[in-house]
Here is the input.
Amino acid sequence: MEKFDRMRNRRAQQRCVKTVGMHCALLNGNVYRPVILRNFSGAGLFFETAVQILPGSYVVLRTTNANDTGDATMNANAQPYTLDANDPDACSLFRSHTVAQVRRCERLADHGDSPSYGVAAEIQMLTY
Here is the structure.
């Protein structure tokens, strides 16, 4: 059993775990929705959203800033990302704009009338 757990937890690349408020839109869409980035690596990322995104879809993710408005429930626990050299959780792999292809979307939980989905996506292009 221990061997299986070690194999399941192996990753090809370092994963940075940090909660970051971001906005997400379909590649050619113009509606950005708030999401919470939970972890990322050089090849992929995982985020939570209030809407289901079909696997195979291409999305654009961008960081939020002080001028953004949106769904307070998704951004309540996700501060904008800062590259502070004194932050022990800072990760050089993070980019403020990313294009990714959704590989998996799973329903996580229901909070009253608002479902939550976990989305795993493969990075296609880092723009910043």
About this structure: The chain has two helices and six strands.
